Amino acid sequence: MNRITNDREYYAITKRIDELLSIVTDENYTIIPEAVELDFLSGLVEEYENKYYPVSTPTLAEILKLRMYEMGINQGQLAAILHISPSRISEYLSGKEPTLQVAKAMYEKLNISANTIFGVSPTTYREVTSPHLALAE
Fold first, then answer.
1. What's the pTM?
2. Per-residue pLDDT for the chain (137 aa), expressed as one digit of tens each?
3. Complete DSSP assignment for 94-110
4. Nearest-CA neighbor of 46 among 15, 19, 10?
5. What residue spans define the domains of the chain?
6. Alpha-carbon distance 76 to 104, whole Å?
7. Is the dihedral of CA 26, 30, 31, 37 positive or negative?
8. Cβ atoms within 10 A of the Cβ of 4, count?
9. What CATH class does 60-123 carry?
């Protein structure tokens, strides 16, 4: 088998992975053959999940709502933590991008990554190939 073709296979393989996870440990990973099977099956599952069950990067609004829930606070309390008005929180929950000062406060006080704050996913990065941008040796 070189790839998973349907959900039935996917569920059977994830069940086998669960079994293997109870056998393979950090201590025996390099010495037991089940580790090879676990790696192979995990690769198949990853490929299938990326194709049929992709997980998108959360938006800033989604993360802010999650943080408010986790902290047990409302929009007004979040505004006080960030030293901004509650109406600004409403704007961010509606999709507006924060200023750099507010973004820094979100990073420092709420532990939200800069990528999330500014809507950048790792797949949007591109390698710089311009010879004009190369560093002098």
1. 0.59
2. 799 999 999 999 999 999 999 999 999 999 999 999 999 999 999 999 999 999 888 899 999 999 999 999 999 999 999 999 999 999 999 999 999 999 999 999 999 998 889 887 665 444 444 455 545 44
3. TTPPPPHHHHHHHHHHH
4. 10
5. 7-52, 60-123
6. 19
7. positive
8. 21
9. mainly alpha
